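User: Some background: our group keeps a shared notebook of sequences we're curious about, and every so often someone picks one and asks for a predicted structure to add to the entry. Today it's my turn. The entry only has the sequence so far, pasted here. Could you supply the structure so I can complete it?
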Amino acid sequence: MSPILIDQDGEPVELGTGRGDLRYSSVPLSSWDTGSSAFFGDQPVSYANIYASQPQVAIAVNRLLTWAVRVPLKLYRRTDNDGARERVRPSEHPLAAAFEHPWNHGSQADFVQTLLGPLCVHGNSLLDVDLVGKRLKFESVDWRAVKPIRVTNDFDPFDEIAGWEITNAKGKRVVSADKVVHLRWWSPLGTLGISPLRQLRTTLISESAAIDWAIQNLKQGVRPSGVVEMTDAVLGMRPDDRRKLYEKAVADLREKHGGEANAGKLPIIPPGLKWTTADHTTAVEAQLVNQRLVNRNEVASIYQVPPPTIGHLERATFNNISELRQMAYTDGLAPPLVLIEQKINTCVINEMLQIDDMFCEFDLGLILRGDRLKEIQALRQGVGSALYTPNEGRSALNMPASNAPGADDLYLPTNNLSPLGEPQVD
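Assistant: Of course. Here's the predicted structure to add to the notebook entry:
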């Protein structure tokens, strides 16, 4: 039997691939105690379990991930001091190849999700870099399976991190801090980032309680369309007579008016009984619906995505949905992608590979993929203003390169488009 260990979030788990003993690696959130809620309970909180069980959190995180995997990460080489650059293809450099094939059976989509997913859930992510000669490979690391090793005091959250202890089913290994890429959100509490889910503490407790109430109400609640009341005359009868009348009334009503075959029949109520219609929506339910609307808007806010872009369409209109979608890309998706870019540029390209004339960048211009007309229009403008060559535009549309003369040249509009550097004819 596998030993029971404690993961990065303080959650007891069985040792398996990507999991290990992570005591002291983070402060347990034992204050998240709501007493009766099985979701939080009186145990330390697991951000992984929150993501796995809270639909609003999963929707927001998954939306960022599905957007991110559509944005290609490219490697470039600077060609002069004025910002000119050229694309470095996977066949031309091992880093560009590693972006496309980061590990065995891995893709660039896996690579981006490995960095962005834990960042959205845990506030941190870790990527192991394997550099041997000219061979470069990355290794995905489960954030729950790491423990920071401090320079002087492992219990001081502000002490510099010298390395990481990584635990999995194969055992433990120690990796130097200069051999990994550590992404984190800024935190005033130390050198580890703060999870957005910790900042949503009150919201998630409220959402969890509302979900629990709805489940228990559906499982145990009684929702009759009406009730039968006894009149004062019945209450004044002898107990035996009153019981007989009650039992007969119950049997008759269930037999003659219960079930789908009796739906719509005119009820005949025995003397001494009175029918009263029951309301279906209570004040408590109305308040819970409003509270859950507030909860999901707060989840969207913490991830900087407009609610309509994650399926909350109460305030969406035909006129504003395009602007909200653009806002989601610039405010919600772009900042974490820029963080990934800069970390790879600093840690991998500049420090590990010691290359000064290369950098990586996400091509956000291709995020329009999905609206074919807008994509073609954008590429047409790019080709017509010397931003792309025709073959680069064809590549963006997953079309093969053309061997036609001038397909790799840049063009500017004159009377007609012509290659740069050729004499212009008036």
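Suggested note for the entry: The first strand starts at residue 4 and ends at 6. The chain is about 40% helix and 20% strand.
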